[in-house]
Write a structure and sequence with these properties.
alpha+beta, Heme iron utilization protein-like fold, seven-stranded mixed β-sheet, 17% helix, globular
Protein backbone atom coordinates (compact mmCIF):
# COMPACT_ATOMS: atom_id res chain seq x y z
CA UNK A 1 0.00 0.00 0.00
CA UNK A 2 1.19 3.51 -0.77
CA UNK A 3 0.44 5.85 2.15
CA UNK A 4 2.04 8.55 4.24
CA UNK A 5 3.66 8.10 7.63
CA UNK A 6 1.14 10.20 9.56
CA UNK A 7 -1.87 8.27 8.25
CA UNK A 8 -0.28 4.95 9.18
CA UNK A 9 0.71 6.24 12.63
CA UNK A 10 -2.84 7.44 13.32
CA UNK A 11 -4.19 4.00 12.39
CA UNK A 12 -2.15 2.29 15.12
CA UNK A 13 -2.36 4.97 17.83
CA UNK A 14 -5.96 3.98 18.58
CA UNK A 15 -4.86 0.37 19.22
CA UNK A 16 -2.68 1.37 22.20
CA UNK A 17 0.17 -1.05 21.63
CA UNK A 18 3.86 -0.56 22.42
CA UNK A 19 6.24 1.70 20.53
CA UNK A 20 9.93 0.90 20.25
CA UNK A 21 12.65 3.28 19.18
CA UNK A 22 15.96 1.52 18.68
CA UNK A 23 19.44 1.88 17.35
CA UNK A 24 22.67 -0.09 17.67
CA UNK A 25 23.14 1.13 21.25
CA UNK A 26 19.73 0.91 22.90
CA UNK A 27 16.02 0.24 22.63
CA UNK A 28 13.39 2.39 24.31
CA UNK A 29 9.91 0.98 24.93
CA UNK A 30 6.84 3.16 25.33
CA UNK A 31 3.87 1.15 26.53
CA UNK A 32 1.83 3.32 28.85
CA UNK A 33 -0.48 4.76 26.19
CA UNK A 34 -2.67 6.07 24.85
CA UNK A 35 -0.26 8.26 22.90
CA UNK A 36 -0.59 11.29 20.71
CA UNK A 37 1.94 13.22 18.67
CA UNK A 38 2.95 16.54 17.29
CA UNK A 39 4.87 16.95 14.07
CA UNK A 40 7.05 19.55 12.43
CA UNK A 41 8.76 19.53 9.06
CA UNK A 42 11.64 17.53 10.58
CA UNK A 43 10.65 16.01 13.93
CA UNK A 44 7.75 13.97 15.25
CA UNK A 45 7.27 13.83 19.02
CA UNK A 46 5.30 10.91 20.45
CA UNK A 47 4.02 11.43 23.99
CA UNK A 48 1.20 10.40 26.38
CA UNK A 49 -2.19 11.74 25.34
CA UNK A 50 -2.87 12.71 28.96
CA UNK A 51 -0.14 15.39 28.80
CA UNK A 52 -0.82 18.88 27.48
CA UNK A 53 2.89 19.56 27.07
CA UNK A 54 4.97 16.89 25.32
CA UNK A 55 8.11 17.91 27.21
CA UNK A 56 6.56 17.23 30.65
CA UNK A 57 6.46 13.45 30.27
CA UNK A 58 8.53 10.67 28.80
CA UNK A 59 8.49 11.13 25.05
CA UNK A 60 10.46 10.41 21.92
CA UNK A 61 11.57 12.64 19.07
CA UNK A 62 12.47 11.20 15.72
CA UNK A 63 12.93 12.24 12.12
CA UNK A 64 9.80 10.87 10.52
CA UNK A 65 10.90 11.68 6.95
CA UNK A 66 13.71 9.12 7.16
CA UNK A 67 11.23 6.26 7.36
CA UNK A 68 10.62 5.02 3.82
CA UNK A 69 8.64 1.82 4.22
CA UNK A 70 6.93 -0.36 6.79
CA UNK A 71 5.83 -3.95 7.00
CA UNK A 72 4.18 -6.38 9.36
CA UNK A 73 6.57 -8.85 10.96
CA UNK A 74 5.23 -11.92 12.74
CA UNK A 75 7.88 -13.24 15.13
CA UNK A 76 7.28 -16.84 16.09
CA UNK A 77 5.21 -17.19 19.30
CA UNK A 78 5.12 -13.41 19.78
CA UNK A 79 2.75 -10.56 19.04
CA UNK A 80 3.11 -9.11 15.51
CA UNK A 81 4.82 -5.79 14.89
CA UNK A 82 4.57 -3.02 12.35
CA UNK A 83 8.21 -2.22 11.65
CA UNK A 84 9.26 1.06 10.02
CA UNK A 85 12.50 1.15 8.04
CA UNK A 86 14.74 3.78 6.61
CA UNK A 87 16.67 3.04 3.44
CA UNK A 88 19.89 1.93 5.12
CA UNK A 89 19.01 -0.42 7.96
CA UNK A 90 18.19 -4.06 8.12
CA UNK A 91 16.76 -3.62 11.62
CA UNK A 92 13.79 -1.29 11.94
CA UNK A 93 14.58 1.83 14.01
CA UNK A 94 10.90 2.45 14.83
CA UNK A 95 8.44 -0.32 15.71
CA UNK A 96 4.84 -0.59 16.81
CA UNK A 97 3.96 -3.82 18.61
CA UNK A 98 0.26 -4.55 18.47
CA UNK A 99 -1.59 -5.20 21.77
CA UNK A 100 -0.36 -8.47 23.25
CA UNK A 101 -1.69 -11.69 21.78
CA UNK A 102 -0.92 -13.54 25.01
CA UNK A 103 -1.64 -13.20 28.71
CA UNK A 104 1.77 -14.04 30.13
CA UNK A 105 0.45 -14.01 33.71
CA UNK A 106 -1.82 -16.94 32.79
CA UNK A 107 0.55 -19.36 31.02
CA UNK A 108 0.49 -17.40 27.75
CA UNK A 109 -3.20 -17.98 27.21
CA UNK A 110 -4.40 -16.30 23.99
CA UNK A 111 -6.08 -12.91 24.10
CA UNK A 112 -8.59 -13.44 21.31
CA UNK A 113 -9.86 -9.84 21.36
CA UNK A 114 -6.37 -8.48 20.60
CA UNK A 115 -5.78 -11.10 17.91
CA UNK A 116 -9.07 -10.16 16.27
CA UNK A 117 -8.18 -6.44 16.37
CA UNK A 118 -4.90 -7.21 14.64
CA UNK A 119 -6.54 -9.31 11.91
CA UNK A 120 -9.13 -6.59 11.28
CA UNK A 121 -6.38 -3.96 11.06
CA UNK A 122 -4.43 -6.05 8.53
CA UNK A 123 -7.60 -6.69 6.53
CA UNK A 124 -8.18 -2.93 6.29
CA UNK A 125 -4.60 -1.71 5.88
CA UNK A 126 -2.49 -4.57 4.51
CA UNK A 127 1.00 -5.75 5.44
CA UNK A 128 3.49 -3.71 3.36
CA UNK A 129 3.67 0.05 2.99
CA UNK A 130 5.62 2.46 0.84
CA UNK A 131 5.71 5.70 2.80
CA UNK A 132 5.28 8.77 0.61
CA UNK A 133 7.53 11.72 1.24
CA UNK A 134 4.78 14.26 0.47
CA UNK A 135 3.48 13.98 4.04
CA UNK A 136 2.09 17.36 5.12
CA UNK A 137 2.73 18.77 8.56
CA UNK A 138 -0.08 18.88 11.08
Amino acid sequence: MNTDFETLLKSVLVLEGTFLLRNEFATGEFKDGPYTYKKSDVWLTLYPASEQNSERASHIHFRWQELKYAQIKRPEKRTPQLQFFDKDREKAPFVFTFPSFYDWSHEASPIIENQNKFHEWVKQWGEEFQLRSDDATS
